[in-house]
Amino acid sequence: MTKWLCRVIVMALALTLLPGAPSAQAQRQPTVLAYFYGWFNVDQWNDPQLVDRPAEPYNSADGGVMARQIGQAQSAGIDGFVMSWFGPDEPYTTGVFHGLLDQAAAHGFRAAVDVDMGQGFLSTVESAQNAVSYAVHTLANHPAYLRYDGKPVIFFWKQQRFSPAQWREIRAQVDPDHNTIWIAEGDALAYVGVFDGLNLYNIAWSGNPAGTNASWASRTMSRGGYFVATAMPGFDESRLGRANPVVRSRGNGDYFRRSFAGAAAANPHMIIITSWNEFPENSHIEPSQQYGTFYLDLAREMIAAYKSGASVPAGPAGGAAGPAPAESPTGVFAAPAVSTLNVRQGPSTDTEILGRVGAPNRYPLLARNADASWYLIDFGGGQGWVSATYARAEGNLDAVPVQ
């Protein structure tokens, strides 16, 4: 019996010492991050594709702007930014990230890179190895670089550009002992082992974000990996010219509540919010012209509950109202007469449901069909049709164009 017990103890210790294996301590570090983009300049805020803009248009390379963004994030309980980065040979994002690290150090914040394999800067195995080596041996040594479970954390985007075998060769060259934590992205369980964990950048396609986070947490952790759960306020890529665009209504904070509560319930190693400032995809929580500080305030409420060990409610706390509606270009608003009203792709019940809206909120009424039986509304950045049977027009309907 004694020998058998010793063998069990030795085997358990060996498992905890496997390269990249999360330790028990990892479960006791409530860490909340946000994806961050550092490539904006003042001229870009005039892009007509944007459905919203920051409360204060800015240049991402400005240290004062970074300090302000860090302060806003910290006020909500966010621990660090994960910034999209194109490698050391691309000077702009490299310079911005170094500036972000310095500002983070000055304010007790953290920052990590998201090695972006999707833009063409890191198109060869050699360039990818060079970039990751720079992240491991240079960036990760900065005192403000994000560490989890005692190790620097490096995120990746579209690591599927190379096979697991190719990444295994890269890892053997730059970090064979897994002294850093590598987080792969997407439907990439085959990469867990070479990488140390997984994150789903975008879960907006899921109408059940809690179930999605729980399923992927289980699948990732069963392979010994770290799981970084995702929370999102919404998503809208319909103006970006992409095939089969994903649109997820914000629902006056409903999707953010449900996705964050689901992320917390999955018992992940970390939670990451998509995103701090991805304005083109309308997934931002940074204070903005359309939403003000509503989503930052909502993040503060949920993060505080999560870090205190309390259950994060998936619905409004105390009947919290959504953000004030945006101005309507027609001067007319649509007011749902029911608590749940489907928003559809076209003026017909045969078209796809894009989201749901409901009383007592109002939505800018942008257009109507010929007999005014359907209204085209702006619902938190996305656009869709609601049946006039279940929504009243507030204002002069004759001023609304027919579409």
Word description of this protein:
The protein is α/β, with parallel strands linked by helices and 403 residues long. The chain has two domains: 25-319, TIM Barrel (Alpha-Beta Barrel); 333-399, SH3 Domains (SH3 type barrels), CATH 2.30.30. Helices cover 27% and strands 21% of the residues. It is built from eight helices and 18 strands. It has helices at 2-16, 63-75, 91-107, 125-137, 164-174, 209-221, 254-265, 294-308; strands spanning 32-36, 80-85, 110-116, 147-148, 151-157, 181-185, 197-199, 226-231, 235-236, 247-248, 270-273, 333-336, 341-344, 353-357, 363-368, 374-379, 382-387, 391-394. Helix 5 (164-174) links the parallel strand 5 and strand 6 (181-185). The longest helix has 17 residues, at 91-107. It is globular and about 65 Å long. The relative contact order is 0.11. Mean pLDDT is 89; it is low at 1-18.
Summarize this structure briefly.
The chain has helices at 2-16, 63-75, 91-107, 125-137, 164-174, 209-221, 254-265, 294-308, and strands spanning 32-36, 80-85, 110-116, 147-148, 151-157, 181-185, 197-199, 226-231, 235-236, 247-248, 270-273, 333-336, 341-344, 353-357, 363-368, 374-379, 382-387, 391-394.
Question: SSE layout and pairings?
Answer:
Elements (H helix, E strand, L loop, with lengths): L1 H15 L15 E5 L26 H13 L4 E6 L5 H17 L2 E7 L8 H13 L9 E2 L2 E7 L6 H11 L6 E5 L11 E3 L9 H13 L4 E6 L3 E2 L10 E2 L5 H12 L4 E4 L20 H15 L24 E4 L4 E4 L8 E5 L5 E6 L5 E6 L2 E6 L3 E4 L9
Parallel strand pairs: 1-2, 1-11, 2-3, 3-5, 5-6, 6-7, 7-8, 8-11
Antiparallel strand pairs: 4-5, 9-10, 12-15, 12-18, 13-14, 15-16, 16-17
